[in-house]
Amino acid sequence: MPVIVKSFTNAGEAAAALSSEREARYLGGGTLVMRALNEGDISISTIVRATDAAMTRIDATGSRVTIGASVTFARILAERDLAFLHAPARSIGGPAVRNMGTVGGNLFAPIPYGDFTVALLALDATVAIQGSFGGRDMPLDEFLQARERQGGALVLSVSFPRIAGESFRYRKVARIQPKGGSVITLAAHLPVSSGRIAGARVALGSMAPVPTRARAVERALEGRALDAATIAAAAAAATEGTSPGDNALASAWYRREIVGVHLRRLLSGQE
After folding, report:
1. Which of 31, 90, 98, 217 has CB atoms 3.0–4.6 Å from 73's, for a disulfide?
2. Domain limits of the chain?
């Protein structure tokens, strides 16, 4: 079946075209959509793409950092102001994938992928989307829970509060380094005030159908010093509220067994 490609210079026009056809998909870097087409996905009849420069911008100058949906992981790695995101960006595939894959596309990556999204979730990110309803901002965790119902919506950018880089931690467990799919992925933002954690955010990948906040872990950390007792309590809570699945990389049982171990290492600052 032929596939129609529609290109626009304006993101609003692309969003309108995307929302007008049930079988339309947006083409960013192509690492998801082109793979689906190559594997014979006949549900896609129209490809929509946009060359709007706004979707390729990075603004790290104010109190919030905004990253356009079309920004690639190679671009992230070239930005000194985003050094705290270099580890999650580098964990996405190999150089060819990082040159093509985009921040916006990663929001839709299925398990065992979507590692950069785990980092954004720990940063309390917001997603700017546009569709038939107009434009709006959504908390990333809310967006992910409704991701399968976001058909027709175009992601424009993601944003999050500027942070102190040393307060952010990231860890990906994979069988093939550095480009393998994730066994589990962990990210944490642990701002400290007067020696105690204030505003803990911890996110997990491959521990649920979509990246998810580890709220029980956050409760174990909040308001406490990051000492051995706190880390032990957080690790003990690591599986609470999770629902990992089985795949070729690991079983649900194995993921539950190791997530506390790797969370302990993440919080302790171990490599």
Report:
1. 98
2. 4-50, 53-161, 171-268
In our burial notation (b when 16+ CB lie closer than 10 A, e otherwise), range 226-243 reads beeebbeebbebbbeebe
Domain 171-268 has CATH 3.30.390.50: yes
Q: Which residue has the tokens 């990992």?
A: 244
- Residue 187 bridge partners (DSSP): 170, 203
- What is the model's pLDDT at position 252? 97
Q: Which CATH architecture has domain 53-161?
A: 2-Layer Sandwich (3.30)
- Is the pLDDT at 25 greater than 90? The verdict is no
CA atoms of 106 and 120, how far apart (whole Å): 10
Among 110, 140, 141, 108, smallest CA distance to 127 is for 140
Please report which confidence band the pLDDT of residue 223 belongs to, taking 50, 70 and 90 as the band edges: very high
* Phi and psi angles of residue 167, each rounded to the nearest 5 degrees, phi first: -85, -5
The number of residues in the chain equals 271
Q: What is the CA radius of gyration of the chain?
A: 19
pTM of structure:
0.94
Question: What angle do the packed helices 228-236 and 252-268 form, to 10 degrees?
Answer: 160
Query: CA distances (Å), 149 to each of 76, 138, 139, 206, in order?
Result: 28, 14, 15, 20
pLDDT score of 194: 94
The predicted structure's pLDDT at residue 260? 98
